[in-house]
């Protein structure tokens, strides 16, 4: 049995113009110092913020960003911001996506309740989310226009802590149709394919994007959706989590942001490890009830059923 606890890992964040890690640079998390990229396809300044960050000693554990509106009220856990994003060729609005993909199958490592979480994510969080987590090379993605929380355009005044505000409405659609003025309304508007096809990300224009949510907790490596909590470390197969900004039609990759858990070496055992294990078991007792309902739901969908048996979520021992 191999003992896994989140405190035995360091989260590293890198980014680059391809999925190949050798092309990546380290991202200075929570520093408000953007990582600049200038490639044949785009120019952008990347900011990554993670609440309660367990990573490089040179990075703060949090950012003032999380104390601002609406992030404090939302309880947001992380943010990936392109500030700004400038394409060097036009990109059709229906083609630009941001999402996750993996090199190896994850179906053998999906926890009980995952299909329920997948449906919740598509029904409640992002109705435009598409993907196949059960594929040989799993993927899930959403159109930038309907999935990214905040999109602004044009010039902006620099701030010490740059919290973006919705502003895509300043750009008219092809045909002069107006874009809704708020982020949620714009996201709902662009769920419709016909609306996305009227929009083009123009060459040389400045677009400011901020993608964030309160559901994925990198500090605990957990996914907390309404009604379902999944503690990912229990089922993690070692693959990094990467966010890929790409063209869904020709598969052109513009930028990749990668989150990798790296084991710490020579960590002395915690004197309170025994009590911590007991506390964890108590903390996650309610998950068993949720997972029971999830398993019943999955039994009705055998093609999307997890291949893993249920586990007690408080235990941190994994085969």
Automatic annotation (TrEMBL):
Q: Which residues cross the membrane?
A: none
Q: Which domain of life is it from?
A: Eukaryota
Report domain Domain of unknown function at the cortex positions: 11-261
InterPro entries for the chain:
Duc1
Q: Where is this region: Disordered?
A: 1-23, 265-319
Q: Spell out the PANTHER family in the cross-references.
A: UPF0590 PROTEIN C409.17C (PTHR34826)
* Designated name of the protein: Domain of unknown function at the cortex 1 domain-containing protein
The species this protein was found in:
Arthrobotrys musiformis
